[in-house]
Amino acid sequence: MTSSTDLATGTGRLPGQAGTLLAELGERAELHDLYDEYGSPVYHDITASDTHEVRELVRLVRSSSGPVLELASGAGRLTMPLLALGRAVTALELAPGMLGALDERLASAPARLRARCTVVRADMSRFALGQRFGAIVLGTTSVSLLDAPGRAGLFAAVREHLAPGGRFLISTVDDALTDSGADPGSDEQVYALSGVSGRAYRMHEYWPRGALARTVSIFPADLDRVPDGPVRIFTSSVAVVLADLLIDEMAAAGLSLVARHPLPTGGARHRDVLLEMEAAV
Ligand SMILES: C[S@@+](CC[C@H](N)C(=O)[O-])C[C@H]1O[C@@H](n2cnc3c(N)ncnc32)[C@H](O)[C@@H]1O
Fold first, then answer.
1. Which of 142, 216, 238 gets mutated to test ligand 1 (max ligand atoms within 8 A of its CB)?
2. Atom 19 of ligand 1 has which residue's CA nearest to it?
3. Which of 52, 91, 166, 211 is the one with CA 20 to 30 A from 185?
4. Hey, CA dihedral for 172, 178, 179, 183, is it positive or negative?
5. Mutational pocket test of ligand 1: of 2, 71, 98, 169, the residue with most ligand atoms within 8 Å of the beta carbon
6. Domains of the chain, each with CATH number or no CATH
7. Closest residue CA from atom 9 of ligand 1
8. What is the pLDDT of residues 158-202, one digit of tens each?
9. Is-contact 206 16, C-beta < 8 A?
10. Ligand 1 binding site (Cβ under 6 Å of any ligand atom)
11. What CA–CA distance (Å, rounded) separates 55 from 73?
12. Rg of the chain's alpha carbons, rounded to an integer?
């Protein structure tokens, strides 16, 4: 799906109804990656008040000890509640736009929280921080942004950075609950979203049955009322990386399963699970 989308020039196609909407906008459409400098503020606007996974992650991190490493921290949706636990948190993120949004969020946070946070620009598939952590967190099913070699690099680096007795907490799509049930739904779901800014968006999730990737696209909610000029559309192609595959890959990297914690929501077609892992002995 990414191959039909030329983000570098801001042109290209999207699958399904999102593609039709994009085509109707013609030359006014500017297609961006969801995590680039224009996409990061929109991602932050939409997700800033989203509490998905927070309670489960905080509970598990609380029962570990020592510093916390959060991978793919984005603009800090999970970082802030982790800092609120009173622990030192290293937030690792690759996209400059996301790091800028995280810096802004930290700047307006209480000084005692800010003082405990270290922000690092790095690739989660190959990092070397010279430190070990009591808990390493990769939430929001962000592992789906890596291909198989990237995941192998991630798991090797995680193994290197886990303190004795430490936990790696990683969320992903749960095999058991995915794409099953009486209502198969259509290939494309459309959601109405509103940001903390009050702006309204329309999100298309295109996921043909059985496909191992889905495309998320975000448009302004009311295309008839956007002012003249360019219209920015944001997209991300997300692999569907099922829990059983990850557990096998992590076992090969020396990480073993402690527990599977079901997460209350995912999307219309899937449920997520939080995997609690430890270094194999
Ligand atoms: C789905 S967002 C999750 C952000 C944040 N954890 C949250 O819950 O809002 C995924 C994040 O992963 C970041 N990312 C993508 N590839 C990465 C990589 N190789 N290394 C580090 N971060 C990466 C993106 O820039 C984005 O901020």
1. 142
2. 123
3. 52
4. negative
5. 98
6. 13-43+178-239 (no CATH), 47-176+242-279 (3.40.50.150)
7. 77
8. 999 999 999 999 999 887 545 544 345 688 989 999 999 999 999
9. yes
10. 35, 47, 72-74, 77-78, 93-95, 98, 123-125, 139-140, 142, 145
11. 16
12. 19
Between the alpha carbon of residue 203 and those of residues 15, 18, 158, 238, 240, the distances in Å are: 13, 9, 33, 14, 18
Q: State the distance from the centre of ligand 1 to the C-alpha of 151, rounded, in angstroms.
A: 14
- For 86-114, what is each residue's pLDDT tens digit? 999 999 999 999 999 999 999 999 999 99
Residues 6+ apart with CB under 8 A from 281: none
Q: Tell me, in angstroms, the distance from the centre of ligand 1 to residue 120's CA.
A: 13
Amino acid at 233: I
Enter the pTM of the model.
0.90
Residue 152 CA to ligand 1 center (angstroms) comes to 17
Residue 229, token pair as written in the block: 């000029």
What distance, in Å, lies between the first and last C-alpha atoms of the chain? 41
- Residue 249 CB-density burial (10 A; 0-12 exposed, 13-18 middle, 19+ buried): middle
Contacts (Cβ under 8 Å, ≥6 apart) of 198: none
The number of the ligand 1 atom at minimal distance from the alpha carbon of 74 is 27
